[in-house]
């Protein structure tokens, strides 16, 4: 009786492992998320609990070694943003001063509504097509 059960279970176990493997390969792989970068002041000192404030020109993002090696020259990078309200405008400021940082100018076309939303920021080197994406909270009071 035990041999009969074992003979019936082995093919089922093999089928189950094949089915699980095919399901795992069919599922989309999760996106690799970059850690929240350190937000610094103009002198490179960490500030803000890693939030970007609107109406500020002094904030800088300290890029991790991984991003620096991917992007190459920071003078060539371009910035795109996603997941932010339409009235939030982010542009690049001074590059690499202090070392390994990118300056960001965060502003709003209208201050009527408060903003407290996580945005996605992508730095891309157009020459190499290399990019680095990070997320950070953007905060600004309403009037």
Can you walk through the features of this model?
The protein is built from 2 helices and 8 strands, in the order H-E-E-E-H-E-E-E-E-E. It is of the alpha+beta class. The strands form 2 sheets. A 4-stranded antiparallel beta sheet has the order 1-3-6-5, with no helix packed on it. It has a 4-stranded mixed beta sheet with strand order 2-8-7-4. A hairpin with a 5-residue loop joins strand 5 and strand 6 (101-108). The N and C termini lie far apart (79 Å). Residues 5-33 have low confidence and may be disordered.
**Separation of termini?**
79 Å
Gross morphology is: globular
Supply the helix-strand structural class. alpha+beta
Q: What is the beta-strand fraction?
A: 25-35%
Task: Draw up the topology in text.
Elements: H1 2-26, E1 38-40, E2 51-53, E3 60-62, H2 65-71, E4 78-82, E5 88-95, E6 101-108, E7 115-124, E8 131-140
Parallel strand pairs: 2-8
Antiparallel strand pairs: 1-3, 3-6, 4-7, 5-6, 7-8
Summarize the structure.
By secondary structure, the protein is an alpha+beta fold. The chain contains two helices and eight strands; from the N terminus they run αβββαβββββ. The chain has one domain: Immunoglobulin-like (Sandwich).
């Amino acid at each position: 009786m035990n041999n009969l059960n074992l003979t019936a279970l082995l093919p089922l176990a093999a089928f189950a492992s094949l089915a699980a493997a095919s399901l795992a390969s069919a599922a989309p792989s999760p996106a690799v998320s970059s850690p929240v970068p350190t937000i610094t002041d103009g002198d490179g000192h960490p500030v803000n609990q890693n939030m970007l404030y609107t109406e500020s020109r002094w904030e800088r993002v300290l890029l991790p070694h991984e991003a620096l090696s991917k992007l190459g020259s920071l003078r060539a990078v371009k910035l795109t943003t996603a997941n932010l309200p339409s009235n939030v405008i982010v542009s690049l400021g001074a590059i690499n001063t202090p070392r390994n940082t990118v300056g960001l100018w965060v502003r709003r076309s209208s201050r009527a509504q408060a903003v407290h939303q996580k945005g996605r920021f992508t730095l891309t080197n157009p020459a190499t097509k290399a990019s680095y994406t990070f997320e950070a909270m953007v905060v600004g009071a309403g009037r």
